[in-house]
Write a structure and sequence with these properties.
The complex is a heterodimer of chains A (332) and B (295).
Chain A (H helix, E strand, L loop, with lengths): L15 H16 L3 E6 L1 H8 L1 H6 L4 E4 L3 H12 L4 E8 L2 H4 L1 H18 L4 E8 L11 H4 L5 E4 L4 H13 L2 E8 L25 E4 L4 E5 L1 H13 L6 E5 L2 E3 L3 H11 L2 E8 L4 H11 L10 E5 L18 H12 L1
Parallel strand pairs in A: 1-2, 1-3, 3-4, 4-6, 5-6, 8-9, 8-11, 11-12
Antiparallel strand pairs in A: 5-10, 7-9
Chain B lengths: L1 H16 L12 H9 L6 E4 L4 H7 L3 H8 L23 E4 L5 H15 L7 E6 L6 H12 L4 E7 L16 H6 L5 E5 L3 H18 L3 E6 L16 H8 L3 H9 L3 H24 L11
Parallel strand pairs in B: 1-2, 1-3, 3-4, 4-6, 5-6
Helix pairs in contact in B: 1-3, 1-11, 2-3, 2-8, 4-11, 5-6
Classes of the chains: A alpha/beta (332), B alpha/beta (295).
Amino acid sequence: MTEPKTWNPTINRNHLIRDAIGLGIYDCMKADPSVYLFGEGASMKMHFDCPAIEKEFPERIVTLPISEDGNTNFAVGASLVGVKPVVDVITSDFLFRTMDGICNTAPKVNFVTETVEEERTVVIRSENITFGLTTGQRLESLFTHIPGLRVIYPSNPRDARGLMRTALRHPGVTLFFEDRMIADADTRPEEAEDSGRDISFGKAAVVHRGDKLTVVSYALTLQRARKVIEADDGLDGCELIDLRSLYPLDMGAIRKSVRKTGRLLVIEPDITHSGVGAEILAEIAESPDVEMSTRPQRSGAPMSMIPASHFLHRDLIPTEEKIKMVIQERLN
Amino acid sequence: MLTIRLVEDELQRLCLTGEASDLHFSKGQEAISVGVCSELRSTDYIVVHHRTISPAIARGLPMNPLMAEILGKATGINKGLAGEMHIRSPELRFMFAFQLVGTCASVAAGLAWAVKYYKKEDDIVAVFLGDAATSNAQFHEGMNLAAVRKVPLLVVVEDNHLAGNVRPEFYLPAPIEKRFESYGMSATKADGNKVDKVMEAARACTEEVRAKGSPSALILDTTRLSWHKQGQRDVRSRAELDLLAERDPLLYEERRQGIDAALKSKLTETIEREIAGAVEFARASPIPKMAWMES
């Protein structure tokens, strides 16, 4: 439970998930000559993050200018004749720049394509690290409201690799997030190993079994919740569910768990207002076959911009202390 | 060109009866679609703006599924789900159409990149866009990408001097060709209302793009004789429209080919019969179905 006062990538080494995403792409590039990488600084990024791709497929790395929207639309254009692009938008905040490509172009092209031939495969990847006003905004919930997008957010390297393979092997448009605030030390050793299996979208994982409280989370807060639950015997009754895929949502797994526990807590790194947790609570409230013994609850980020002062970052996203407190409240 | 004109005339009537929704017509700009498409190979690709009816017909989309698409029926080329502004027919390499002005430029640049470097074909991509689209960031990002990556892209500018109902003084501070020059692209200008001139210029440009494998622009001066879209009134006066109508590409072509009234009416009759058949086909077709309709 010793968290540094601020999250600093220099002291919190965080390369496992990033490397796993690279290897997931590499797996697909090896098997499929139509997989290409597009993005600002794409070559440089592969040099550091996935030397295997740089070495074996340099001709499939397309370094593009700082023109995020143009880049996404460019990649969608390439997909029209069969290229399967992975577009790296780098920091999540740039997603706002390329909303046209992600929301207006890619899914609409696919919708119309579906009427005449097989859907196209397009992956847009982006990362989150809380840093400032326009660095690291959590925007995943926003995109779950756009029809035609699959929104994926892994919490560990094994899932990241398996989910990326699925994104590239099943036609459709995927927005693939990477949480740069999950440190390598947060990952359990077995989560760092590739399972060799692809992970279906819309399939949540039960990370910890229990029958007293259903805790649903993803990405950074999933890892924090896991540590809290595993460290304290008193919290052992929690059933922790990792969503992995925010759209499609695995409501079946959540309903099944809540039927058993009768209690629901969603912990999210994103702003709670109109967020993934709100959707889950609403779906559970509407489920005729789910009885709740207490009111469901959400815990997440406040409706706030990210201030520049790093002293304020710590409490923006639910900390381990906060998560422990909320879980204890719900258990009692 | 006459087919396009007559199809749009019929669709305009259907807009007024409510059978068609408000559509975007190319009246007065037909020579551009026809002239450029006639110079493309059947294996070349095209990407277009939101005025799709003219390029779709020029590219050879069959009348029945085109009409059914525009009238929202399941027998449409895209099952009635794409509509007038998003027609896609990969078979004819009519790759997509974009309602959002400018997006076609960056998408077409990526498509041209993939044709050259992924498919490794010597086909080219022709993208059609308006002069107003050259003010959009997607145009500039697309041209920058096309030039940097040296892609076989022909940018056809339908220079109708209008952005919807807005005049160039609000969006164009310098001649359009300067915009292309800044990306190191050559820009050819021609009269877009004279189909023979369009063909001549398009032939030279397609040859250049194909030979060099790099982008080039063709700026075609034209006149939009229809409203921006049906249902949105035009700011131009009757007198101004009458003056523009003197440049009607159909009039020019009739004079050039010596088509007299008798021949024109014979051609019109044949085409109108085909159009009436397509409208009947669409009317008799079922409405589209989607999965959510069952829930």
